[in-house]
Amino acid sequence: MLRCGLLGRKLAHSYSPEIHRELGAYEYRLYEVEPESLGDFLENGPWDRLNVTIPYKQAVIPYLSALSETAKGAGSVNTLVRLPDGGILGDNTDVWGFLAMVRKSGLRVSGKKALVLGSGGASRAVCYALDTLGARPVVISRTGENNYTNLDLHRDASLVVNTTPVGMYPDNASAPLSLTHFPALEGVLDIIYNPARTALLLEAESRGIPAVNGLYMLVEQARKASERFTGMEIPEAETERIFRLLSGKMQNIVLVGMPGSGKSAVAALLAEKLGRPLADSDEEIVKDTGMPIPEYFARYGEAAFREAETRVLRTLSKASGTVIATGGGCVTVPGNYAILHGNSRIVWIRRDISLLPRDGRPLSAGADLQAMYARRAPMYARFADVQTENNGTAEETADAVIRALGGVK
């Protein structure tokens, strides 16, 4: 069996093994190698075919005996094939992945200025691909002629492409720049895929600018790499199939809704049915504060509680593939939307007001629930990707959520 894998330095959260399990019948392992061991690993390591990621897409080139035309054009390598004579061929399937990402986005880039953030191996592949599409790539780096201190020179940019790791899990809240500099912007592409929506993409969405993450690029480059590994053609439809599979599995499912709407019960059933981890923000707040929520409310007030809730949501939302039940008032803090939306699909669980219990819920106990619902309904609607009723059994509602989310796995 072919010994394949991914070469990099920090790979714990890579989705490449899962993608390659879908693509081919070969071993696929993660090889975390320190820079001082790179040469020895390439020459003597237990591998036949490799993908290459940060920080080695250029560092491997001196060890190679041949480069494909694409790798030569890009000036970087992300796919290695050990040749029969012991030499190593370097190729670059990132180029094909990015071309597919642009097609998927529907953006027209020919003749447009495209700012490419970062100057590493991925940046080189992206610039090469943009050149082939007739765009005008401009690399923005920390120390180059075009850098983050003179962005106003590029107010005419139509496209921003992030090839840096800024905003990647677990540093989800970071962004390499603000889009305020670019009034003519038509699209934002970020090759990061975890989280599904980086802070950069969330800003683009808030401005109504088309925004696409790097998952489709990741899957397409893997399909092309798998063809190089095995010498066998793989249908292009596999990229779309695996992309949809991973999109569903990677993102969290977050339940929002009025206090007592049954979020916790539905979340538990969803986690069981989908084989996913389960988290409840109220339970985590109790752990974080060291006291029951009614007591914390009584002692410190709602503002302090909301701060604790946001802190907990920020931690929970960094997970992937988790079912998360939230407190009924989390939507009253506008900033919680970006926190949850970044790596989740949000479901509004609706229940008739007459069925909502009040016990143990500080804001519901003596409140006018009709008035509370009237205030919060627009907030739930803004947060939610989909919504479903919970006026029957929790199991019926869990099944309805799964259907609404396209039968997530």
Q: Could you say how many structural domains there are in total?
A: 3
* Top-tier CATH class of the largest domain: Alpha Beta
Helix content percent band: 25-40%
* CATH arch. level architecture of the largest domain: 3-Layer(aba) Sandwich
Shape: globular
- Order of neighbouring strands in the sheet with most strands: 2-1-3-5-6-4
Number of strands: 16
% residues in beta strands: 15-25%
Low-confidence stretches: none
Class by alpha and beta content: alpha/beta
Within CATH, the superfamily of the largest domain carries the name P-loop containing nucleotide triphosphate hydrolases
**Radius of gyration computed on alpha carbons:** 24 Å
Report the end-to-end length measured between terminal Cα atoms. Answer: 29 Å
Average residue-wise pLDDT: 95
How is the CATH topology of the largest domain named? Rossmann fold
- Biggest sheet details: 6 strands, mixed
Q: Count every helix, treating DSSP H or I runs of 4 or more residues as helices.
A: 15
* Quaternary state of the chains: single chain
